[in-house]
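Q: What does the assembly look like in three dimensions?
Context provided by user:
Components: three
Sequences:
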Amino acid sequence: MIVAKDYSIELDVIEGNPTLKALDDVIIKPIDERPSKKFNIVLSITVTLLLILAVCVGFTFYFGIGLWGNNQPVAWAFDITNFVFWVGIGHAGTLISAILYLLRQQWRNGIARFAEAMTIFAVICAGMFPIIHMGRPWLAGYLIPYPNSHLIWPNFISPLVWDVFAVSTYLTVSLVFWYVGLIPDFATLRDRSTNKIKKTIYSIFSLGWRSSNRHWKHYEKVYMILAGLATPLVLSVHTVVSWDFAAAVIPGWHSTIFPPYFVAGAIFSGFAMVSTVLIFVRTVFNMEHIITIDHIEKMNKIILLTGSMVGYAYVIEWFMSWYSGTPFELFTAMNRAFGPYAWAYWIMVSCNVFSPQLFWFKKIRRSIPITLLIVILVNVGMWFERFVIIVSSLNRDFLPSSWHYYKPTIFDFGILLGSFGLFFTLILLFAKTLPVVSLAEIKSVVKGAQPDHRGGNHNA
Amino acid sequence: MPDKKLFGITALFDSPDSILNAAKKIKEAGYKNYDINTPYPIHGMDDIISAKPSKLSYITLFIGFSVAAFILSFMWWTLAINYPLVIGGKPYFPLPAFVPITFEFTVLLGVLSTVFGMIAIAFNLPYNSHPLLDTEYMRNVTSDKYGAIIEAEDPQFDEKKVKDYLMSLGGNSIESIYQPEEIKFKVFEPKFLIFLTIVAVLSAATTYISIDKLMYITPFDFMLNQKKGSAQAESSFFTDKYEMRQPPVGTVARGFLLYEFIRVADTNQFYGNPLLPTKKVLVLGQSKFLTFCSPCHGDYADDNSRLMAQFPPGPTLHSARVISFTDGKIYNIITNGQNVMPSYDSQITREERWSIINYIRVLQRAQNPKPSDFTTIKEFKKESGNVQN
Amino acid sequence: MSKIESGYIKKELPKNIGNIGLILLVVGIILSLIAYLTDPARAAFSYLTAFIFFICIGLGSLFLVTLEYAAGAVWSVPFRRISEFYASSVPYYILLVIPLFFSMHNLFTWMNPGVVAQDKVLQGRMVYLNVPFFVVRESAIFLIWWLFYALLINNSRKQDESSDQKLTAKNIKLSIAFIPIFAFTISIISFDWMMSMTPKWFSTIFGVYLFAGSTWVALAVLTLSAVLLAENGYLSPKVKRDHYYSLGTLMFAFTVFWAYIAFAQYMLQWYGNLPEEIIYFIHRWTGGWKYVSLALVIVHFIVPFLILLPRSSKTNPKILVFVSIWIIAAQYLDSYWLVMPDMVNNGFTYSFSWIDISFPIAVAGLVIVLFNSMVKKHNLIPLGDPKLQRSFDFHL
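A: Here is the predicted structure of the complete assembly.
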């Protein structure tokens, strides 16, 4: 039975009415406890995947890119697909931390810390790929503009160099933003801990934070500036990544809608991954009252919105490939849907366009098992979207005599699987060492957290 | 217990309303040196205690614009001034292509400068030891209670009065905070110096060993010992042991015209002179003749040369024999050499050789003019109005 | 909420405003008619510019209304009715487009059979770009917009009396249905009326470009009206300067968003330098258009960006009014830049003419007249909206 909604009342962000101390206890509990057996089992699985990554990357460094399936003309395949995939996943974190903060959406407070951590780990996974896909990764330093013996500078006109700046800026800013959010929490941990080593570490990282109003004043200003700068940054990073493709003149790549299309797709896949992880976290750590079904529902609405934006872009690209009158464009569109990679195309369309449309229905939005299924499908679909864009356009471009089918090798799969291992290992380690919910932020939105006489709400 | 210096008196409050109220009262009571500590920012606190707004945003603004200008100039200098390259047909300073990097770098430096500003200015690193740290008050205030502290420095401070006042506001757990003992660290402490030395030695040693020794050991020398053929080395691949190869027989380099009579002194046919005796050709021919030919043959191609005294002297080019040579034969002689004269094909380009031959013909004509030449010269001089004869 | 609780007093706008609007409208119509009679081809282009601008305001305002419903925004509730009033121009599109249908042959190269016969690309598009399909398509779109406008506004007005929350729920559903339809229809409008003027050109982001500009100018007219009305007591005393903050922030955000979309479009086509794509920008860089393009960057992006950057500007009524007027003018410049340089495609040479002033005068007059008549008939704040109290409680 669906109860009619009352729009005149403010919804609570956190369920129940936990005291501040109770919040502290439930959030810090995983950090204080020794890892459980289940945790160790899951960790060993992810570390195994991580080892697979290390082994495959090691082999790649020693023997070269020939171990992968890349050929001419498909010179970019799994490597760049994975790169764009992971960078895209990172975007949800910054969106939740920065953009939802600027939009005064208080429900973000329970999920921001975890999402930001996921951003950083996803960008680490992503940043690995441009380096390992080089023929001579030990010369990666040449991408940085420093005076060198060749007397030559990096090509600042190339989108690949823009990528270097964009992704490293994104990693740095995300780290800084995450760290600034952690400072008050480190102070809380410092004051709670009794273990001497832990206390020293927390003291160092908390920078002498005293929760003084003088500090909060500067802190809030800086947080606002960071959020305001991180917002255009996150949009620009995936824009620059999209320009890796759009700046080329290959049909299927050279399309002006790529920047907003990729950004929408990034938010889409990022939110899907955040949902996937948070569904597990809230149950495992008993935080269902902090990360509520309302939050999951709101995230599903955003997934629906961005999924529809991606669908819009698909339709416009289809239409424009016909409208342009260029036979190459039309062929590429046909080739994607009916050519040798048609199987990948239809997986992509069904996962990206059809499955999130189920979120129109409130019952499905509020059902955890179906949500979990849909968001996993979305991630699969978004991986395939990058795969289709890259491989099908390269596989058959202008000259038919150059066409060549691409088949991934075991090392391609190993690196893809291993990158998930890296990501989830980092997440598990994070969950056990740092508070997964921002203590200061969540306390500030509990009912009764703000003085009454100021009245009402700050909710937008 | 030694007489510790009092820093201030703290009080804890249980609700955000009570702390807001307390802050208002403390301000109204005229206290200046006080602070409020809460686990999260309380709305309205800034207005109540009339805190001046944070000026950190000016750092962001200033650094942001400076960095944008800097990075744009840097990219302009590297790609338009220092090592100009035409890339993709774009101009040396393609502004649309520089925008993404400018934006990213501006955001990066803006963020870093703001955060460092906050840490340096607001948190007062590295001198962040503070009497409130590691107290029961702090333990509560970072967790779930709200606190106020009135510092001893305040002109109105009186220990008993302040304690009573705070209690009257509704505070509990009134605590006296003392200044911690000052521990001074000497810079020239022996332990520290030893530590510095060890670190210095270790880093120097590591750097030296890795750059100067490690790079030459397998497998790190893989870039030094590459499986490729070096031009001067012995080849294990080719049977004649030469790494440098000759071009295949019969190939001709691009733009190169074959001279079929190379190293052939006497043939039946010769090439014809492709150059007409224009002024340009003759000027070139004169200059090259004077450079290469005049030492042996003389400035005027007679035998009055600088080598006159040597044996054998360079012959005169005005003999009937030489006049009867075709241009092509002279070309062949210059290219292949003859008797004592060496081959000049590596010193004089083909165009220059033909020009020299044209000049030689001029010299020959000058020495053995036809009678009609004089009339021609007289008429030319009359026409051009040249009085001087 | 009752009028007493909200502090809202219904009053008419000063007589001057209605009069000015009427004068502008009549003068504008007369001048436009003269323009059509003297130089129909030129008039067609000017009319198209003005028409696109007019759509931006009306449709953009309708979008803002649906955005508030869909996002569940609270701060904007007192202002929603103002956007509804601006959206009241939506039903008139179907009428106002008729002169354009009659002068289409001046605007579009694909209507010229001689040109089409020689160009393979245009022949390929004939199944989409032909007069019957074109007319039907545009009319259908305008009718769909009219339908949504009518349903949404009807529910909103009914709620003033009944305060029935079911109406809000209905409007939320309508809004969520409208938004994807809006996305596709505004794209089709932009492709049909503007993109097709340059024969071989195409850009997949063009619909988003028009969307950005349209929402931007809708925010500007909203801010201008909201601030002036609030400061002069036409809304409720409970509407505070804090409420203006989000208007200012949104205008700032869309300034940046427009610049981002415009730059993405320009940079990619500049970078690829393909003949079929770059012709669009070459037309906008030759002769005097170079200066207009540069002016557009400064006027449409740099100036509003710098003005709206500080936090204090976004709650300062004087600055908000100034920058709103600036933005409205800037968006007209954008519409001008989108339409006018394409005159060369059909063989016309461009030169600035008085005709370009006559149509905007008519548009300004029409907007003011419509708004004024709405204020006379309906409440300026949605009294029955359940979120109104929460909105009055809102503060930064």
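Follow-up: The first helix of chain C runs from residue 3 to 6.
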